[in-house]
Structure formats: C-alpha cells, structure tokens
Design a protein that fits this description.
The protein is an alpha/beta fold. 54% of the residues lie in helices and 7% in strands. It has helices at residues 15-26, 39-46, 60-66, 81-93, 108-120, 133-139, 152-162, 181-210, 215-225, 233-243, 265-276, 281-294, 296-305, 317-350, 356-364, 373-383, 394-417, 422-434, 441-452; strands spanning 8-11, 31-34, 55-56, 72-75, 99-102, 124-131, 142-147, 177-178. The protein has an 8-stranded mixed beta sheet with strand order 3-2-1-4-5-6-7-8, sandwiched between helices. Helix 8 (181-210) packs across helix 11 (265-276) and helix 11 (265-276) packs across helix 12 (281-294). The longest helix is centred in the C-terminal third of the chain and has 34 residues, at 317-350. The chain binds adenosine-2'-monophosphate. The site of adenosine-2'-monophosphate has 12 residues, from helix 4.
Length: 485
C-alpha cells in the first residue's frame, strides 16, 4: 500500500467546512473531505472542489487510511451532540497520538470535558474558535485554538497558514491555552461582538430618531467613522448596509423587521460572567436588548399606552454626530475592559495562562470584531502583560477623558428624550462605579446584616475582621455562617 499523503481531514461539509478545506488547499495542504451524509462528499468534489487536490472519503476508516501521522481530523459539525458522536466514532479508527480538532462553536465546558476524555484514550484534542464567517473561512479567519498543548506543534503550520494576517504578516492565530481556553476566548469574542453591534445600533437610533437622519446620511457618517479610531469591520458593513437599496429603490434597512435573533454565545458569555462574578454589563445589556427587540407584539401594545414624546435633539447636528461617535468609542473601551476582566477571571478559575496581547492580535484581523482599536489593546498588553484594567493604560485613559463630556451629554439627552440607550448608559454607569472610591455597599452590608446577620467589615478595622450588630434589640449575638442568600 502506498504511503498516506493527506495532511488533515475535515468532517462537515456545510459552508464553513467547505471554505476551510478550500483555504487549506490554497495553502498547499492535502485535505480529505468527509461528511455524515456521504453524497455531499461527491457533490463537493464535483463542484466547489473541482480541479483541486482535495480527496474524498466515504467512511471514517477510509479517511484514516489516507492521513499522514499523527493524523489530524477536524470537525466542523453542529455544536453539541454531533461532536460527541463523532468523537466516539473516531476513537476506534484513530491511534494514540492522533489529533481530533473541533472547530465548531462549542461551549467551553464541553471542550474541557472532551479534552480530558480524548486524552484519557491516548489521543490529543483541540477545541478551536474559528471566526470570520464564510468569507473569513475562505480567505483567512481568526483561529483561537486550545486543548492538548502537545497537539499544537502538529496543527500550527496549517492553522497559521490559513488564518488572517495583520499588516506586518503576523497570523491571527496562536495557541490560547489548555482545555477549553480556545473556545472560552471565542465565546468572549462573540459576547464582545454582541456589544459592538448593540453600540452601533444605538448610535444609529440616536441619529435616526434624535437627529432625523436618513439612511443615506448615516451611510456617509459611518463611512467617515470608518476612517478614524472606530475603523473596524462592523462599522464598515454598517456603512454598506445603510447604503444598500431594496428593489423599490429605498434603503433596505428601513424595510427590515426590528426583531433580533441570537444563537446563544452572547448568553453563554453572560452566564459565565455570573459564575465568575465579573460585571460584563455591556454584553449583558446587548443580549437583553435583543430579547426586548424580540418582544415586538408587546412593544407595539405598550407603545400605544405610553406615547413617545418628541425625540428630536436641539442643536448643531454635526456636533451631535461627533458626540455620538465619542459616546460609542468610550462605551466600546468599557466593553473591552469588561471582556478582558472576564477572561482574566476565567484564566484564574480554570488555570489557563492566557496571553492577552496575543488574544488582541488574534482578534485584530479575520474575525467579526476586527478593528484598528485591537491594535491599541495589543500595545497596551505588550507594555504591561499584567494590566488588570484596560482603562489604566495611558492611551485608553486619555481616550476616555477625551470622550467623557460627549458621552454624558448623549446619555443624558437620550434619557430625557426617551430614546433607549442601554449599552451606552450601562457603560457609563460601570465607569462611574469603577472610579468611585466609595460606593453605597456600606448600606447594603448593613441591610444584609440586619435581616440575615451576614456581618460586615469596618473601615476602621483590618480587612477580614467581621462584625455583627444587634439592630433591633431582639436579634441574637450570633451571625449567620451558612445562610448566604
Ligand atoms: P449533514 O450534511 O449530514 O447534515 C452542519 O450542519 C454540518 O454538521 C453538516 O456537515 C451536517 O452533516 C453536520 N451535522 C449536523 N448534525 C449532525 C449529527 N447529529 N451528526 C453528524 N453530523 C451532523
């Protein structure tokens, strides 16, 4: 029998899988294509992959025979049960040292479990985020791999070749960490993406309702914004969307129903943040804003009961547009500050040694949140890898200071005029909380001690000493130690 020649197999021929195969083929790798519904393999070879050096396999056994060792098998199938099922079917056809890679949007906790399971069988496992949509998969995605560290050297040449590159040629792909680290970082990316999108939508609503601007006018505003510090993929596509005309010649955006869908990665980010005790308030508001948008019937009904007041902003329109831009920029800085706080807490919890500058570099190109801004975050972490609060980096500190007046003006006016700005305003509330040396939690602790004897610490005593007051004269001297509501 001849020596196997294939570098990697990819299972799952939906559009992301197909495009990754074509991308790998472009970079000189020989790929074996596989799929549960086997007819799709022949379809793919006869159409999209025609003329390319791509092999097809009609069974996992045939696939295994075509692969060089250690075998590399990448799954691009639906997250959840399908991944577990494929892992079980692959284990008998693979050998110790072979590598199973899951490139789907898996929950990081599943990836932690699967890494342990596959390693217990003597094989290696990688769970990797792949971002950039169909186009990214084809031309260069951002790739965020984690799992078994021993697998990385075998996968690195392929992943770094097919990933997006930043202007100096650095790949938007590097090892993230053990177990579920890659999928955690991808999940956080998606959460931040929810936040970025919500911020843009709030800016759009402020311009539309507060300033009475048309889609064409806003198209121009986003075109201008994309030339400055907000330069990013999401601003760029917003520009294009606002300029896109429907078949009737009208801006298509005005004809689209205002109810948002979601697939769950934003929700996962918020759930994890609750577990970690890290306030990612902006992402949470972005998720809830999609939920509010989905309550269309309830909104229509309530809008009749509480008629809106005149939302128009007074004053110079160009100045308002600049104020809104600054409010967006400041809020975005807050969102990334929160996202990085979350990753730092998760790294501590799960024992990952995350490279925060490296993560910014992975997000710098290829993915949906790619932006010039991430270059500044990379610089901030290069300067201080232990930076716990992005706002304390001189660049971001200055940026926030430069935006503060506009940010407050926009939020205050939106509140007065009744235009919802949940993400802009939660960002500002977080900022004001974070810069408060003293918050009202002294009163909160007193309340907790009053009704539940939860005790409190005192300003005039060292941390770690706990006190209880008999507030009513009828409570006991004994504090609660197990009751923690
Ligand atoms: P299919 O073509 O046989 O449906 C995206 O849906 C990809 O995931 C497709 O390649 C699809 O295979 C695969 N997929 C979805 N659910 C699956 C399952 N339960 N088992 C195996 N593959 C699945």
């Amino acid at each position: 029998m001849s020596e196997p020649t294939a570098d990697i197999a990819l299972i799952g021929l939906a559009v992301m899988g197909q495009n990754l195969i074509l991308n790998m083929n472009d970079h000189g790798f020989t790929v074996v294509a596989c799929n549960r519904t086997v007819s799709k393999v022949d379809d793919f070879l006869a159409n999209e992959a025609k003329g390319a050096k791509i092999l097809g396999a009609h069974s996992l056994h045939e696939m295994a025979g075509l692969l060089k060792r250690p075998r590399r098998v990448m799954l691009m199938v639906k997250a959840g049960k399908a991944v577990d099922e494929f892992i079980e079917s692959l284990l008998p056809v693979l050998e110790p040292g072979d590598i199973i890679i899951d490139g789907g949007n898996s929950l990081f906790e599943d990836t932690i479990r699967r890494t342990k399971h596959v390693e217990s069988k003597g094989l290696l496992y990688i769970g990797t985020g792949v971002s950039g949509g169909e186009e990214g998969a084809r031309r260069g995605p951002s790739i965020m791999p984690g799992g078994s560290p021993a697998a990385w050297p075998h996968v690195k040449p392929i992943f770094q070749a097919i990933s997006a590159k930043v202007s100096d040629g650095s790949p938007c792909c590097d090892w993230v960490g053990e177990g579920g680290a890659g999928h955690y970082v991808k999940m956080t990316h998606n959460g931040i993406e929810y936040g970025d999108m919500q911020l843009i939508c709030e800016a759009y609503q402020l311009m539309k309702d507060g300033l009475g601007m048309t889609a064409d006018e806003m198209h121009q505003v986003f075109a201008d914004w994309n030339k400055g510090e907000l330069d990013s993929y999401l601003i760029e596509i917003t520009r294009d969307i606002l300029g896109f005309k429907d078949t009737d010649g009208q801006p298509i955006v005005d004809n689209i129903l205002d109810t948002a869908g979601q697939k769950g990665t934003g929700k996962w980010t918020v759930i994890s943040s609750q577990d970690m005790g890290i306030p990612i308030t902006l992402i949470a508001e972005a998720v809830y804003s999609r939920c509010v948008s989905a309550m269309k019937d309830a909104r229509v009904e309530a809008s009749k009961a509480f008629k809106p007041s005149n939302p128009k902003f007074a004053g110079d329109r160009a100045q308002w547009v600049e104020d809104i831009r600054k409010a967006l920029y400041a809020s975005k800085i807050i969102s990334y500050t929160q996202g990085y706080m979350l990753m730092r807490a998760a790294a501590k919890q799960y024992g990952w040694n995350l490279n925060y500058g490296g993560i910014a570099l992975m997000w710098r190109g290829g993915c949906i949140i790619r932006s010039a801004f991430l270059g500044e975050i990379k610089k901030a972490f290069d300067k201080n890898p232990n930076l716990g609060n992005l706002l304390l980096n001189p660049f971001f500190k200055k940026a926030i200071k430069g935006c503060q007046r506009s940010w407050r003006k926009v939020v205050a006016t939106a509140v007065k005029k009744g235009i919802p700005v949940p993400a802009f305003s939660t960002a500002l509330a977080f900022f004001d909380g974070l810069r408060s040396e003293r918050l009202p939690a002294n009163l909160l602790q007193a309340q907790r001690d009053y009704f539940g004897a939860h005790t409190y610490e005192r300003l005039d005593k060292p941390r770690g000493e706990f006190f209880h007051t008999n507030w009513t004269g009828t409570g006991g001297r004994i504090s609660a130690s197990t009751y923690t509501v």
